[in-house]
Specification:
single chain; alpha/beta; TIM Barrel; eight-stranded parallel barrel; two-stranded antiparallel sheet; 12 helices; 35% helix; disordered C terminus
């Protein structure tokens, strides 16, 4: 795969990144159901073989479990094939697995050390503040103090670059007043385009890269989700209860959009998922898209997004099928959490 510079850093990343939200398993508040660690490890190896050169994870995924699995996968790869490791902090949990949010410098310092231990790496290539406030809309803590703590960790050699996730333009400006920000990780998909208005223009103007998450809207745009499969999602899959895109009145329209993507993909010999991901990558401000992979065989319907060039006719057909409202810059499921 071709690579592209991430922001103004020395990291050159593939168009697709390996996402590990589902790798955390199902035994936590935002789990995706049961996940076999052996499948995750095999999928990471297969992704590296295919040219995907970065993994995105977070301390919160599976309450540390996803990071531990990533660490195991990295140890099984020769050094020359190991991808960059991006992780996130600021969501902490108690003994019952209940989340709280902390931008406290001492808390972030502990989180970084814990992530290094689980990942078994000498330094984290990109360390991101997971949320400016959580749940979205909660009172903000000091972004400036948090970024100063990350910059201290950078100078100590524990992290290499600083990133933020789910930040708006004003919050990014506050972060940048303290230290350079390499990348933003925002949600971006055909069903969630709110960042186009002010957030992406800000990153373009300030040399910040964008690694977007949920380009498939939590798997809904993959082409593999049927009404029956959605109805059968287990109780420990957060989408079953919390994602309005998986429920009516949105579901009928979203499944119709998937059929449009299927038709566009058929003209190119690609899957609906590859079309949906390629749609996000066609934006010149987007550096890479995070794709969740649970098994090696799932890569077959995703890798083609990296070099798929949608035509003007394709884009017009897709645009005509979009819902009237795609403006929320953060997942509504988390707003309602």
């Amino acid at each position: 795969m071709q690579t592209q510079q991430l922001g103004q850093s020395n990291l050159f990343i593939s168009p697709l990144g390996f996402g590990t939200w589902a790798s955390g398993g199902g035994n936590w508040e935002y789990g995706w159901g049961v996940q076999d660690d052996r499948d995750t490890i095999a999928a990471i190896a297969a992704a590296a073989d295919a040219g995907i050169n970065w993994i995105d994870t977070a301390a919160a995924y599976g309450l540390g479990h996803a990071e531990s699995v990533v660490g195991r996968a990295l140890r099984e790869l020769p050094a020359s094939r190991r991808p960059y490791v991006f992780t996130k902090g600021s969501l902490v949990w108690d003994a019952q697995g209940r989340f709280s949010h902390s931008l406290d410098p001492a808390s972030l310092s502990r989180e970084i050390d814990d992530s290094l231990y689980r990942l078994k790496v000498e330094a984290i290539d990109l360390y991101q503040l997971h949320w400016p406030a959580f749940p979205p809309g909660a009172a903000e803590q000091s972004i400036e103090a948090a970024v100063a703590a990350l910059d201290k960790a950078r100078l100590a050699g524990k992290i290499r670059h600083i990133g933020v996730s789910n930040f708006d333009a004003t919050q990014m400006a506050r972060a940048q007043s303290v230290a350079p920000i390499t990348a933003l990780q925002p949600p971006y998909s055909l069903l969630m385009r709110g960042i186009e208005e002010s957030i992406l223009p800000y990153t373009a103007a300030h040399g910040i890269g964008n690694i977007v998450y949920s380009p498939l809207q939590s798997g809904l745009l993959s082409g593999r989700m049927t009404r029956e499969r959605i109805a059968a999602l287990p109780a420990n899959d957060w989408r079953a209860q919390r994602s309005p895109e998986f429920q009516e009145p949105n579901l009928t329209h979203n499944l119709a959009l998937v059929e449009v993507l299927r038709g566009v993909g058929a003209r190119h010999g690609r899957t609906p998922a590859e079309v949906a991901i390629a749609w996000t990558l066609r934006n010149p401000v987007v550096t890479g898209a995070i794709v969740g992979v649970r098994r090696p065989d799932q890569l077959d319907g995703l890798l083609g997004a990296a070099d798929l060039k949608l035509t003007d006719a394709d884009l017009a057909e897709i645009q005509a099928a979009l819902p009237e409202t795609t403006a929320s810059p953060v997942p509504q499921s988390l707003v309602n959490a």
